[in-house]
Amino acid sequence: MLLAALALFLSAPLAGAQQQQTSPGGLTIQSPVLTIDAERLFEESAYGRRVIGEVDARGADLAAENRRIEDALGVEEKNLTDLRSTITPAEFRELADAFDEKVQNTRREQDAKARELNNTLEEARVVFLNAAAPVLEQMMREAGAAVVMERRSVFISSNAVDITLTAITRIDSVLAEEGTVPDE
């Protein structure tokens, strides 16, 4: 009951904003608080789709490289195991230690490549949000808002104050028009 009353109380001042909301690109919302889904903003923007596509392609290449390395190491391990009966335990231990070191180094190198790929994506998000900030600030002023909050941080709100789709449209347009599509 209390939750229903809270929802009714919070949505009442926004009823006018719901009726005023226009199509993506236009903004007639009048609200002191707006929400945005920052993840969706990045992922559905032209820039975000391009970066994610590039990172996914590089990730697929890395996965294929990992499979090739794993296959090669498997063959090397089998050869080492087959060699065991023909050499002394000391010689085998030396070869086994060298193989183990090779495996550990390879694992570290491949893990570093995966981290680099994740860092590339996170850095691209920051670059995008920095480039998008002026557009979001303009939308905030147009709506008479004092704050734009991450949608996931809001307990309850009206969908009328979510500007994500409109922001994607505007950001794509502004960045393309200005020729300022961010570079990583």
Automatic annotation (TrEMBL):
> Its domain of life?
Bacteria
Q: Nucleotidyltransferase: present as a keyword of the record?
A: no
- Pfam families named in the record: OmpH (PF03938)
GO terms of molecular function? unfolded protein binding
Keywords for the protein's UniProt record, in alphabetical order:
Signal
InterPro entries with a match to the protein in the record: Chaperone_Skp (IPR005632), Skp_dom_sf (IPR024930)
Instruction: Identify the stretch annotated as signal peptide in this record.
Output: 1-17
Do you know which Gene3D superfamilies this protein is assigned to?
A: Skp domain
Coiled-coil stretches are: none
Name of the protein: OmpH family outer membrane protein
